[in-house]
Every structure is written in structure tokens, then in C-alpha cells.
């Protein structure tokens, strides 16, 4: 049995908006087994309301 890591990767709750420098809130709920590399999470900017789709890498966002 391989050890199971239930939480997967941890994503930041907020990232900085590339366009306006505002704060983007994580808008996706983690999958049942937690975030994995290659998953896509989206963030919504509170200032310009842009949506950012982030593909998760090996080390998270
Ligand atoms: Zn923005």
C-alpha cells in the first residue's frame, strides 16, 4: 500500500491579478482527492472581475 496524501497540493487562497494588481480569490473547490498537478483551478479578481484559469504544476500554482 502506498501512503495516501488526502490533501494533495495546497493552493493559495489569493493570487495577485496580472492585469490590475488586485487580489484574486480562489473560486474552485478542491477535488475529492485534493489538487493534483495538471488540474485547473480558477481565480476571480475582486477588482477587475477577470477570471484566471491556473494549471497546477508539480509545486502547486
Ligand atoms: Zn484584476
Describe the structure.
- This protein is mainly β.
- The protein has a domain at about 25-60.
- It is about 0% helix and about 30% strand.
- It has no helices and four strands.
- The protein has strands at about 15, 25, 40-45, 50-55.
- The chain has a four-stranded antiparallel sheet with strand order 1-2-3-4, with no helix packed on it.
- It starts with 13 loop residues before the first strand and ends in a 6-residue tail after the last strand.
- The model has no long low-confidence stretch (mean pLDDT about 90).
- The structure holds zinc ion.
- Zinc ion binds near residues 17, 19, 22, 48 and 50.
What class would the helix/strand composition place it in? mainly beta
Radius of gyration: 13 Å
> How do the helices and strands follow one another from N- to C-terminus?
EEEE
> What is the share of helical residues?
under 10%
Mean pLDDT over all positions? 89
Q: For the terminal residues, how far apart are their CA atoms?
A: 29 Å
Which hetero compounds are present in the coordinates?
zinc ion
Major sheet attributes: 4 strands, antiparallel
Approximately what portion of the residues adopt beta-strand conformation?
Answer: 25-35%
Number of strands: 4
Overall shape: it is elongated
Tally the helices: 0
Keywords:
four-stranded antiparallel β-sheet, binds zinc ion, mainly beta
